[in-house]
Design brief:
Radius of gyration: 20 Å
CATH class of the largest domain: Alpha Beta
Shape: globular
CATH superfamily of the largest domain: Dihydrodipicolinate Reductase, domain 2
Strand content: 15-25%
Order of helices and strands: HEHEHEEHEHEHEHHEEEEEEEHHE
Number of helices: 10
Bound molecules: nicotinamide-adenine-dinucleotide
């Protein structure tokens, strides 16, 4: 059985040989940028696990963001990472000491990359330490948690951003622009399929107390977020159906497979699948009166592949997390917004839909948003 990491790495293998010869900030510029000499977003990563490792590696190619600090409960990891990324000991913390980041001018932001149910408390503590918060998705395990995070960061006067890397991904951005320009005509239908075979039954992703749910929290959220940015509207109703084939593995509160439908104000309907028990599900399809786009893979680490009725999408692949972190630095220091927001409010919108999906399953009713 393949793990999530195997799955995502399969999607990214062809990216490995690609040289990072250019400044990622140049990607959208007409002419190559001057060497960058503006402010650098100095970031500490909290949670040195699988995705934290990927972000750290990608940040080595950033021009506007830099990995300068670490937060981990495992001393041996801190030693290894310090050596690898040349991080001073004074910028390393554990989960008991990281409130002291408040007194560390070397760190501007903390990127929270721990299990889902731990994001909220960490975000509140980081905001209290007057540092910007970047949280992985899902930003919390329900909309109420997300809103508490938004309120706390607002009160502290710090940014709260969510790790929505697809909002910086060139092919995704191009498709959103095509839709905004009306190139697909009046939209009718979106289909999102997000899933993989989860593997190891003992991992935190299958523990409700740490994951907050199951596949929906982890991978189904890509179809929710994707439906919103592909259609360009907020859904007004949700229906959903759950299938559980392995109740021993996917215990109470941990969803294995959910099919859900979203209705949008213009009449567009989305039909989506979220699963931890099927392979090769990473596909978006959007159709309108004048055109269509199909993307597969649509949200893996890339390269993203896609075609429209006009032909293949040819925008370059750049490591998503490199673009994301440079883009977030630009947002914080220059106020440059990505095509789709990556702020806390955006995260809360997805969590409200997740709450509604779980409610629709529980009640068997159509839930109005
Ligand atoms: P992981 O298990 O590989 O790493 C989690 C890290 O958190 C580990 O270093 C672990 O030691 C640490 N941790 C701290 N407290 C813990 C506790 N009480 N229990 C368990 N671990 C604890 O997981 P991951 O794949 O890195 O996922 C971390 C977060 O990143 C999740 O919220 C996930 O949704 C998100 N993620 C996002 C993407 C993306 O593409 N944006 C991809 C993968 C994961």
């Amino acid at each position: 059985m393949s793990s999530r990491r195997d799955f995502l790495e399969k999607l990214t293998v062809s990216a490995i040989g690609l040289p990072l010869l250019y400044n990622s900030a140049d990607l959208f510029a007409a002419t190559p940028a001057e060497p960058y000499d503006g402010p650098i977003l100095k970031v500490a990563i909290m949670g040195l696990g699988g995705y934290g490792s990927r972000v750290a590696e990608a940040m080595q190619s950033c021009t506007r963001a830099k990995l300068v600090g670490l937060i981990s409960g495992t001393p041996s990891k801190l030693v290894k990472w310090r050596e690898k990324y040349d991080i001073p000991e004074k910028n390393c913390y554990n989960y008991e000491t990281y409130d002291q980041i408040k007194d560390n001018p070397d760190i501007d932001a903390v990127y929270i990359i721990t299990p889902n149910a731990l994001h909220k408390e960490a975000a509140l503590r980081v905001a209290k330490a007057d540092k910007h918060v970047i949280s992985e998705k899902p930003m919390g395990i329900n909309a109420q948690e997300g809103q508490e995070m938004v309120d706390a960061c607002k009160a502290a006067g710090v940014h709260l951003l969510v790790g929505y890397r697809m909002h910086f991904e060139p092919k995704t951005v191009a498709v959103i622009k095509m839709r905004q320009n009306g190139e697909f005509g009046k939209l009718n239908f979106f289909q999102g399929q997000s899933g993989f075979d989860i593997g190891d039954p003992t991992q935190w992703r299958l523990d409700k107390s740490l994951a907050g749910g199951g596949a929906m929290m982890d991978i189904g959220i890509y179809s929710i977020n994707g439906a919103r940015y592909m259609v360009g509207e907020e859904p007004i109703w949700v229906t959903a159906q759950e299938t559980k084939t392995e109740p021993e593995k996917f215990k109470e509160g941990v969803d294995e497979t959910i099919q859900f439908q979203l209705g949008f104000p213009s009449g567009v309907v989305a039909s989506c699948l979220s699963t931890y028990n099927m392979s090769y599900l990473d596909r978006f399809f959007l159709t309108g009166d004048d055109g269509f786009v199909e993307m597969q893979p649509s949200t893996g680490y890339g390269p993203i592949e896609g075609r429209t009725n006009k032909g293949k999408l040819t925008q370059p692949h750049v490591t998503h997390q490199t673009l994301q972190m440079d883009g977030m630095a630009q947002l914080i220091y220059e106020g440059v917004q990505p095509i789709v927001p990556v702020d806390g409010e955006e995260g809360v919108k997805d969590l409200k839909i997740i709450d509604a999906i779980y409610k629709a399953i529980e009640t068997g009713e159509k839930v109005t948003l």
